[in-house]
Amino acid sequence: MNNADIAKLIPHSDAMCLLDSVVHWNATTIRCISRNHQDKDNPMRRGDALPAICGVEYAAQAMAVHGSLVGAVDKRPRAGYLASLRDIECKLNRLDDLTGDLSVDAERLMGDEHRVIYQFILRVGDVEVLSGRAAVVLDAN
């Protein structure tokens, strides 16, 4: 699954669709890859840097793709809203100075058609960049 396929599953498009590919998924987990964290035109950059905390958006998009792939809701959600973030550990300051693919892993811990909780971790190679849990409220119209 490539970036164009992913853009069909989530509300984000064009440069804001941050994931390049889905390399693995099953009923509870997904692994996505992104390469645009070093891109000077990344829409999440602030000045000359992409703060590592922006990895939360990469994780949120992986969660949205996973939800669509597993049919976690009866209808495609119009939008998902991050209701809370817990246990966020940001181990580095920036994403843009990391060489290599950004791996985004998310695991669905629980949920229903109205809300879902995932844990996530972002890595470049063996280097852990960001991890935490997210509760998402789904607007399933």
SSE arrangement:
Elements: H1 3-7, E1 21-25, E2 29-34, H2 55-70, E3 79-90, E4 102-111, E5 115-124, E6 127-139
Antiparallel strand pairs: 1-2, 2-4, 3-6, 4-5, 5-6
Q: Which blocks of ≥5 consecutive residues have pLDDT under 50?
A: none
CATH architecture descriptor: Roll
Order of helices and strands: HEEHEEEE
Cα-to-Cα separation, first versus last residue: 26 Å
Q: Which percent range describes the beta-strand content? A: 35-45%
CATH homologous superfamily, by name?
Hotdog Thioesterase
- Which strands sit side by side, in order, in the main sheet? 1-2-4-5-6-3
Summarize the amount of helix as a percent range: 10-25%
Largest sheet: 6 strands, antiparallel
Provide the residue-averaged pLDDT: 91
Total tally of structural domains: 1
Note the total helix count: 2
What is the alpha-carbon Rg in Å?
A: 14 Å
Q: Which assembly state applies to the chains in this document?
A: single chain
Shape: globular
CATH topology: Thiol Ester Dehydrase, Chain A
Identify the notable features of this structure and list them briefly.
Thiol Ester Dehydrase, Chain A, 2 helices, 6-stranded antiparallel beta sheet, 141 residues, single chain, 40% strand, 15% helix, mainly beta, globular
Structure report:
15% of the residues lie in helices and 40% in strands. With 141 residues, it is mostly beta strands. The protein has one domain (3-139): Hotdog Thioesterase (Thiol Ester Dehydrase, Chain A). The chain has a six-stranded antiparallel sheet with strand order 1-2-4-5-6-3, covered by helices on one side. A hairpin with a 3-residue loop joins β4 and β5 (115-124). The chain is globular. The mean pLDDT is 91.
